[in-house]
Design goal:
It is a single chain. The protein has ten helices and eight strands. The chain is α+β, with helices and mostly antiparallel strands and 302 residues long. The two termini are 36 Å apart.
Length: 302
């Protein structure tokens, strides 16, 4: 994992060397008897610990905003504490403003770490929601799709019947999502990369759903959403949002970036599952111009 953050580690190391060179060049070395060992141990120890935390953070997390904030804040604390420690070895003129700025990195770093912790907290909430959605899939120990780890078509049909029997007359929507040109992705990048695309799309969809929504891999490159207490208009809006989120994904393969887009169709889940799914499959298989404008059983594609 540290290989992903090599530039960050190099920058932190160069910053430490620059700080040391600055004090050695502009400061006056203090005699051994003037060294304050308590301050050296406390300030130097803080710098060492903060540097260790930077390594722990970068070695356990992928890149992203939270990682940058946590590692950057800890690096500032490390540099500020290191500058404090250098004051014990070199006498610096009180008129030197740069010394004060370097030492001020500690509170600035604490502020940056606090902001990182705030976003990390939100990240954990999203992950917990993701796990709760996964829990519904494994609750009854049924079979699941090997590639995406999502529910399969048989489970989807059972859940449609269950919702119809449990709350007859209540709004419930079914959405079918189809990856545009998925066969071309398999042809250009290979089936293993196609499987990775399916996994990435599945994760993106799960992260943007409610806890009560059910996401399944219906067949091939198609995903199905069962949305309890959701009208057709709400389902169409959600499908458009999901298609937009997937369209913004930056999925990279060895051969280059993989562009991903979705078509979608929506229907009220008030008929037999086989009939609903057959109608939605026909809808998402139509060319873009052939999609009906009125929301009868399908919406326009993303």
């Amino acid at each position: 994992m540290l290989q992903l953050h090599r530039s960050t580690l190099i920058a932190a190391g160069l910053a430490l060397l620059a700080c040391l060179s600055l004090y050695a060049t502009l400061g006056v070395p203090k005699s051994f008897h003037d060294w304050k060992w308590t301050d050296i141990v406390s300030e130097g120890g803080t710098a060492v610990m903060a540097g260790s935390w930077v390594l722990f953070t970068l070695s356990s997390r992928p890149g992203g905003l939270v990682t940058r904030l946590l590692a950057g804040g800890l690096a500032l604390i490390m540099l500020g504490s290191f500058a404090d420690c250098m004051d014990e070895f070199f006498a610096i003129s009180k008129a030197a403003v740069w010394d004060n700025w370097l030492e001020a990195m500690v509170p600035i770093g604490m502020l940056v770490v606090t902001i990182g912790m705030y976003y990390w907290r939100h990240e954990q909430f999203r992950l917990n929601e993701h796990l709760q959605k996964r829990e519904r899939l494994f609750r009854d120990h049924r079979a699941f799709d090997r590639i995406t780890q999502l529910a399969n078509a048989d489970y989807l049909r059972r859940q449609i019947r269950h919702e119809q029997a449990r709350r007859p007359g209540q709004p419930c929507a079914l959405v079918l999502l189809d990856i545009d040109g998925f066969h071309l992705i398999n042809r250009e990048f290979g089936q293993p990369e196609g499987d990775r695309v399916l996994q990435a799309v599945g994760h993106m969809l799960l992260l943007n759903l409610r806890n009560d929504d059910l996401l399944c891999r219906y067949a091939g490159d198609r995903f199905a959403l069962l949305l309890p207490d959701t009208s057709m208009a709400e389902a169409a809006a959600l499908a458009g949002h999901l298609a937009a989120m997937v369209g913004q994904m930056r999925h990279h393969a060895k051969g280059g970036r993989v562009g991903i887009s979705l078509r979608h169709a929506c229907a009220n889940a008030d008929a037999a599952p086989e009939v609903l799914l057959a109608e939605l499959s026909r809808a998402v298989s139509q060319p873009a111009a052939a999609y009906p404008a009125a929301p009868a059983t399908a919406t326009a594609p993303a």
